[in-house]
Amino acid sequence: MKSPLVTVIGVVVALAGLLFTLQGFGVIGGSAMSNTTTWSVLGPVVLIVGVVLVVRSRR
């Protein structure tokens, strides 16, 4: 399933997960997501989903 579209979607999802993680841990401030345990947990999950999408789309 080598699909460039799935790869791009996976990269976007992974970057969103990274952003959510950094906001959850308080590295990036200025939003309601900052210093929130919910995003500290969900962010890495979203990041892993994005990485899995990229890896599976490249096989």
| Global structural class | mainly alpha
Biggest sheet record: none
What order do the helices and strands follow?
Answer: HH
Q: Estimate percent helicity.
A: over 70%
Radius of gyration: 13 Å
What does this structure look like?
The protein is mainly α. Helix content is 71%, strand content 0%. It has helices at 4-24, 37-57. Helix 1 (4-24) runs antiparallel to helix 2 (37-57). The radius of gyration is 13 Å and the shape is elongated.
Which tags fit this structure?
single chain; 59 residues; mainly alpha; 2 helices
Which helices and strands, and how do they pair?
Layout: H1 4-24, H2 37-57
Q: What is this entry, summarized?
A:
The protein has 59 residues and is mainly alpha-helical. The chain contains 2 helices and no strands.
